[in-house]
Amino acid sequence: MSSRRTTTITGSLLTACFSTVMILSYTAVADDQGPGSGKGGKAMDKPPAGVKVTTLLPERISVDNSTQKTAMTATVKNEGTKESGDIRLLVVGFDGLKVTNVKGCTAMAEKDLPKGSNSGFICSTGNLAAGASKSYDVDATFDMSRTGKICLPVQTSDGKKTYWQQGPVPFGTTNPSPNAPATPLLLGTDNKPVAPGGDQLPRTGAGSGALPLGVAGAALMSAGAAGLWWAGRRPRQER
Fold first, then answer.
1. How far is the C-alpha of 61 from the C-alpha of 31, rounded, in Å?
2. Which of 12-21, 148-157, 168-177 bottoms out in mean pLDDT, i.e. has the lowest?
3. What's the per-residue H, E or C state across the chain?
4. CA nearest 41: which of 167, 171, 148, 188?
5. At residue 145, what are phi and psi to the nearest 5 degrees?
6. Which of 10, 115, 169, 223 is the most exposed place for a label (fewest CB within 10 A)?
7. Own/partner pairs for 228-233, CB < 8 Å, 24+ apart?
8. Predicted TM-score of the model (pTM)
9. pLDDT tens digit sequence for 91-103
10. Interstrand relation of 117-127 and 86-95 (parallel, antiparallel or unpaired)
11. Dihedral angle at the C-alpha atoms of 218, 110, 66, 33, nearest 10 degrees?
12. For the purposes of burial, counting CB atoms within 10 Å of the CB of 176, is it exposed (0-12), middle (13-18) or buried (19 or more)?
């Protein structure tokens, strides 16, 4: 009896330790966002001579499956040879990705959100020197039963011109992990949602997750409230 009891206890401890190691290892990997990427970005209105602003998003993020919370870093950079002038960065969420906070930035009023978006923040970047950059900590939630996208326009401080716009670019995975502590998502990947209530994935046709990003951005500012309109985007039917 003593031998059998010892074997049972030892086996339980080994299982518990192994599970702990697996969770800790997974968390460490999930927190590694990788290098910044300008994927999904393009130049818009012509900036002043010598100014070239761009944005960067992490190549991968991780969503906590129990809370739906995620975090990332959004960076705006002046790759030109002259100062950028007074500019601002907008951080806007679409579909299943909702931006809940951007440190040091101001939330957009619901009535001023871009068409089709669910959240947005305005970051007053100021004047960026040539070669300089500024990063913002972004908190968000991601509904894994849906697709999710984010957009980073860089505008003049009055919002009349948009020099650069990254997105709306998707984060997602083609291999959902509903039972794992967290799910890693890749930038530029359409999410394959997990069906509500279990591990079964919805049956979708080929390419059904694709979303045309054709975005022609222009921004207007009136009475101190920011507004964005994107042209050329076809409405997306949510499941």
1. 7
2. 12-21
3. CHHHHHHHHHHHHHHHHHHHHHHHHHHHHHHCCCCEECCCEEECCCCCCCCCEEEEEECEEEEECCCCEEEEEEEEEECCCCCCCEEEEEEEEEECEEEEEECCCEECCHHHCCCCEEEEEEEEEEECCCCCEEEEEEEEEECCCCCEEEEEEEEECCCCCEEEEEEEEEEECCCCCCCCCEEEEEECCCCCCCCCCCCCCCCCCCCCCCCCCCCEEEEEEECCEEEEEEECCCCCCCC
4. 167
5. -85, 5
6. 223
7. 228/90, 228/92, 228/113, 228/114, 228/117, 228/120, 228/153, 229/114, 229/115, 230/114, 230/115, 230/116, 230/168, 233/116, 233/168
8. 0.71
9. 999 999 999 999 9
10. antiparallel
11. 30
12. buried
Q: Mention every residue, 6+ apart, whose C-beta is less than 8 A from residue 73.
A: 33, 36, 57, 58, 135, 136, 137, 138
